[in-house]
Amino acid sequence: MSVSRPAIFVRDMKKVFRTRAGFMRSHVTEEWALKGVSFEVGEGETYGMLGPNGSGKSTLVRVLSTLLIPDAGETQIFGYKLPGEERKIRQVIGRVSVDAAFYKKLSPRENLLYAAQLYGISRSDAEPRALDILERLEIEKRRFNDSLEEMSRGMQQKIAIARAILINPPLLLLDEPTTGLDPKSRRDVQSFIEDVRRERGTTILLTTHDMAEAERLCERIGFLARGRLVVEGTAADLKNGYDNLEEAFIKITGEKFHDNEADEDG
Amino acid sequence: MDRLVLRQAWAFVFREWHLTRRYFSWVVVFMFYSLVSSATVALIGVAAQDFRLTLNLVLGVLLWSFLSCMFSDIANSISYERWEGTLEYTFMAPVSRLVHLFGISLYAIFYAAILGIVIVFGLTLFMPLSFAGANLPGLLLVLVVGSMAFAGLGLMAAILPVMSPEHGAQATNIFQGVLLLISGVYYPVKVLPHWLQPFSTFSPATYALSASRKLIGVDNPLSTPTKLVSSPIREAIPELLILMVMGLVLIPLGLWVFNQAETWAKRTGKLKRTG
User: Fold this and answer.
1) Using the beta-carbon criterion (under 8 Å), do A101 and B268 form an inter-chain contact?
2) Mind listing the pLDDT tens digit for each residue in A109-134?
3) Residue B1: what pLDDT?
4) Chain B 64-123, residues with CB within 8 Å of chain A CB atoms
5) Which residue of A has its CA nearest to B264?
6) Which residue, among B201, B204, B110, B111, has the nearest Cα to B150 in the 3D structure?
7) Are the beta carbons of A122 and B7 separated by less than 8 Å?
8) Contacts of A63 in chain B (CB under 8 A)
9) How far apart are CA B151 and CA B167, in angstroms?
């Protein structure tokens, strides 16, 4: 399917990681994380990328976040080319990864205001905005000044989402944002993602292990396996002829799912 | 500089300030250790009942505390981010590396200055210290100019944790140790082995110390324990010029090297938390 005006345009993206070992590090092994991935995400669309550990989901998100340089292919975000226009791309993306990476000694307030200033937002503008987002994510106001290390994983992940939303990015890259969360936190985060998309028209690329989450949030879903995008379509299209999305994935890709495991290496 | 750039640079000062606040007990421990180790070095001069040796050692510990603290904060800024796991978020923010490292350097200089002040006042508890007659404005100028060169070196050392998540931080400490060894901080460079002496010409600390000794008047035969006879600033101009050139070369070179290392890390996937 070709979308009218793609927020993300990826054509034949490849990424290989080389490891050197042995005497004088002369032995080189290659691991292809992405073997020619092509897809598009339209403006305002929520696109789900489903795949097991090691399928290449996190590598894909890292490339789109300008944290990895692809080895081949054509990539554009809102028309900005990658590699080449990283500075412009960084202004339009927000990312949430599976691990809530923060200064754990600092409070949510300090972490969020620091992030806002990096994006050129003044502290006076950012503070009420951050409070509003945290309130909607059901974090009590009194926790705003507590150290993050005193907070549960679910709360930390909600603050990671607040950090990404605070800068109001047109494109959100959500890399397994609900992995490891308790059911209540998971529902809160999913509802918030729906609200963000509805209210702000944000384009969202979501990688997940969670089939139900993908069905609930995504208009289109791609199956990523061993570095290749095997198939994409709506949840209804993909399930056609199968009992559910998981069965469809297993039958179509020949891969098995390991649910609730983080895919930071993928 | 426009408002956006200032706000972005200030973000790093904001972050570092709050980290200092939150790790305050460690800051106290670090400052106490710096003060005590400075005093133990300076007391060697007191034991020898030689005010020139004492002043030389005091000058050495002060200058080295300031410059090494600044160098270390800049060089380790990347290691800290790796430990916290925030490096990727800093690198994907729309901040130029110049602004990023400027913000880091700004706070590092502030923090190093506070450490220097603490050590000066702390040393007075251990020994009578008098800087009467010393050219203190000149000394301040040496610190400012020397800071630029050390900031450039810090930027170059900061690439080590980018390139090697496992060993980068350790290599930074070795780099700092070598600077201490070759710069003649507590002894004249001429006491080093002949093969090592030429390396001292590459260290900004060598020139900062040489200029400072002139401006304090420690080697002036007319100086006494109560009244120092310092040199005017013009006598330190050769060292100041060398430091200025080093700063002008090392800062852009440090940035260039950092950018190369960052690009390499993004090609090889080394930015990731665990490498």
Assistant:
1) no
2) 999 999 999 999 999 999 999 998 88
3) 61
4) 84-86, 88-96
5) A69
6) B204
7) yes
8) none
9) 21
Which residues are CB-neighbours of A89 under 8 A, at least 6 positions away?
A: A66, A77, A78, A80, A82
Q: Which two tokens stand for residue B234?
A: 């013009």
Give the up-direction half-sphere exposure of residue A37: CA atoms within 13 A in the CB hemisphere.
Answer: 33
Among chain B residues, CA nearest to A163 = B89
Mean predicted confidence (pLDDT) in B33-38: 95
Task: For chain B, give the percent of residues with pLDDT over 70.
Answer: 98
Given an 8 Å threshold on Cβ–Cβ distance, is B15 in contact with A103?
A: yes
Q: Is residue B250 within 8 Å of B154, Cβ to Cβ? A: no
Q: Is the distance from CB of A222 to CB of A232 less than 8 angstroms?
A: yes
pLDDT at B171: 84
How confident is the model at residue A98, as a pLDDT? 83
Q: Give A173-183 pLDDT, tens digit per residue.
A: 999 988 878 88
Contact B15 A114 (CB under 8 A): yes
- Quickly tell me which residue has 């093969």 as its tokens: B195
Over residues A37-85, the pLDDT tens digits come to 999 999 999 999 998 888 899 999 999 999 999 999 999 999 999 998 9
Render pLDDT for B59-118 as a digit per residue (tens, 0 to 9).
999 999 988 888 888 888 888 888 888 888 999 999 998 899 889 989 999 999 999 999
If phi > 0 it is left, if psi is from -120 to 50 it is alpha, else beta; for residue B39 that is alpha
Question: Nearest residue of B to residue A65 by CA position?
Answer: B92
Q: Which positions in chain A touch B15 (Cβ < 8 Å)?
A: 103, 106, 110, 114
Chain B CB within 8 Å of residue A19 CB: no
Chain A neighbors of B7, CB-CB under 8 A? 117, 120-122
Backbone angles phi, psi at A73, to 5 degrees: 105, 175
Nearest-5° angle of CA B151, CA B242, CA B1? 45
Residue A76 β-bridge partners: A9, A81
- pLDDT above 90: residue A255: no
Q: What is the pLDDT of residue A1?
A: 52
In chain A, domain spans: 6-79+171-177+204-266
Provide the 10 A C-beta neighbour count for residue A94. 25
Q: Is there a contact between A101 and B22 if contact means CB atoms under 8 Å apart?
A: no
Q: B274 pLDDT band (50/70/90 cuts)? A: very low
In this structure, CATH architecture of domain A6-79+171-177+204-266? 3-Layer(aba) Sandwich (3.40)
How are strands ordered across the β-sheet holding A220-225? Answer: A93-96, A171-175, A203-208, A46-50, A220-225, A228-233
Please tell me the predicted confidence (pLDDT) of residue B266: 92
The DSSP code sequence of B231-262 is PPGGGGHHHHHHHHHHHHHHHHHHHHHHHHHH
- Would you call B23 and A105 a contact, using CB atoms and an 8 Å cutoff? yes
Q: Which of B93, B268, B272 sits opposite A90 (nearest CB)?
A: B93
What pLDDT is recorded for position A2?
53
Q: How far is A16 from chain B (nearest CA, A)?
A: 8
Cα separation values, B197 from A60, A163, B138, Å: 51, 52, 27
